[in-house]
Structure formats: structure tokens, C-alpha cells
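Justification of resources, computational component.

The compute hours requested in this renewal are based largely on the per-chain cost of generating structure records like the one below. Each record pairs the submitted sequence with a full C-alpha cell output. That output is archived, and it is also reused by downstream analysis tasks.
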Amino acid sequence: MNLTSAKKSGLPRKYKFPKGRGHSSGVGKTCGRGRKGQYARQGTSFRPYFEGGQMSMLRRLPKFGFNNAAFKTDYEVVNVGELEKAFAAGATVDRAALLAAGLVRRECDGVKILGSGSLTKKLTVKAEAFAKSAEEKITKAGGAIEKLAAVHAAAIKHHESAAEKQAVAAKGKPEAKGKPEAKAEKPAPKKKE
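The structure output for this chain reads:
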């Protein structure tokens, strides 16, 4: 292999435009770097998160601690248009029915019914949350809605783990027995005469 064959191999090379070639070149004199200063010099580079000496975002953000995201209500979303396709008129739609129909596929805190699509069938829908438009469409079709209380899986898990810890702690302690029996007093030693 020689330099000629290497040149003909078609290796991708980015053409570096020569800057500072006069006013008419479009990149003449200051070459688009402005005038003087750190940014105008060659070899200037900064870390991606450098903010001119200001405390960087990387250091300002908290890395650990309490996070409310674990305690948010996690809803699985179902549209009324999907209920129209999946259920017959007069059916009762609840979490179990939605799971069986494949409209809810994962563990969640509750189901929210949204109003996208049309509904012509009379359905009794039981869910944790309803969009206003969904409520209107269900009742307009002659159906009924029943709002259930959302159960926070994360909160339950938190309370369960706390209860488990208490149970383990209680197990480790000796069981409280009845009042301790009074020890028999030893007879006082006789005095020598």
C-alpha cells in the first residue's frame, strides 16, 4: 500500500475551510470570532457544563433526597371510543373487565376514562377518574358512572414496609410477662453473743 492508493480509497475527510483570507471571503479578518478575548484565540475549549465560573447546573441539581414522583397517582388511560369497540351494550366496565379486554395491561393506582371517540352503547363504568367529556358521553348514551377511590401502590408499599419493620422490631424484643415474683428474702445472719 502506498499514499496514492490511500488517497483513492475514498476515506471521508471533512474539508477545513481556510479562514482569514480577506474581507471578501466572508470569513476574513476576525473570521467570525468577534474581536479579541478568550473566544477569539486558538485552542479555546470549555467543558460542556461550564457556565463561565457560575455554579454549574450539574452541581446545582439535587442528587438524592425525597422525591414526590414515587407518591403520585399513576393512572392507566382508556378512551370511550375503546369502550365502544370492546364492550356490548348494558355491560359493567371495571378494572377486571378492562384487564380481560386488554385495555389495561399493567399494575396502576387507578384507571382514568378519557373522552376521545364516540360512545353509543349504554355502559356502567366504574373507574377512579373521569374526564368531563367522558362523563358527558357516558351519561348521554344512557349509561352510568361510578367513581372509585384511587389506591396509591407506592404509599401502600411504604406503609407495608414500615409495618414489617415494626413487626420485626417487636419480634426481637422479649415478650412482656406478668409481674415479677418477689424474691424470697434471705434470713438475716445471727449475731454472735
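The chain has a mean pLDDT of 83. The longest strand covers residues 75-79.
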